[in-house]
Amino acid sequence: MQKLGTHVLVELWQADPVQLDDLEWVRRGLLQAAAAARCTVVGQAFHRYAPQGVSGVVVVAESHISVHTWPEHGYAAIDIFTCGERSLPEAAAQHLIAYSGAKRHFMQVLDRGIPGPG
Amino acid sequence: MQKLGTHVLVELWQADPVQLDDLEWVRRGLLQAAAAARCTVVGQAFHRYAPQGVSGVVVVAESHISVHTWPEHGYAAIDIFTCGERSLPEAAAQHLIAYSGAKRHFMQVLDRGIPGPG
Predict the structure, then answer these.
(1) How many domains does the structure of chain B reveal?
(2) Contact state of A9 with B43 under an 8 Å Cβ cutoff
(3) N or C end of chain A: smaller count of CB under 10 Å?
């Protein structure tokens, strides 16, 4: 058995604060990212904070995609967790990087569910 | 500015397959974990797969807690993402480790939203 899941973590910096604070903009981006990853959305939960910031998660048949935004820092934290060989988590990440227009980003890819070290 | 968020990743192994396949058992564990972390639940989404496995996410006012289970491997992948100095993500992790009765676990703690490298 190899890994069970792939977990892509993305830090977005210098993104537009107005967009990062717009729940519907965030939701649209996550749903598009799920499609880019070839994932099927089966649930979602979004929340807008006072005074600012949005959290959103879409549960997909292949795991989840989440985002948390800090408009005041032009920052968003993205997680894309997928299982199965058909899904394309990096494509979801690339979509969100482009969608956000973030001027800087940092991405790391982690394997999840590897029997050895766990 | 220091980090904006703390991201705790937990691998649970040798957990009970029947419990891992029980959506309500998973939901109860996540809600208890949110309380242990001093987080306030603001949304949730759960899904049970066919033939087996559960995905669940609770969005909390301090970010999110997610779990994906593979009953056939006795495995669950947990993510606890929190912001703010008041929340206790490791307490949520410890709760889920104990709640699941997993015989083996592996935990790592990542900083998210550090301006330097991103």
Answers:
(1) 1
(2) no
(3) N
Spans of chain A, pLDDT less than 50: 117-118
Domain containing B103 — which CATH number? 3.60.90.10
Tens-digit pLDDT profile for residues B75-107 = 999 999 999 889 999 999 999 999 999 999 999
ipTM score assigned to the predicted complex: 0.91
- The kind and range of the H/E element at A29 are helix A23-36
Contact A106 B118 (CB under 8 A): yes
Residue from the list B43, B44, B66 with its beta carbon closest to the beta carbon of A64: B66
Whether B95 maps to a domain, the answer reads: yes
Which is catalytic among the residues B7, B39, B63, B87? B63
**E strand or H helix at A7:** strand A5-13
B68 carries an active-site annotation: yes
| Closest chain B C-alpha to A55 CA, distance in angstroms | 6
Which residue range forms the structural domain that includes residue B84? 2-112
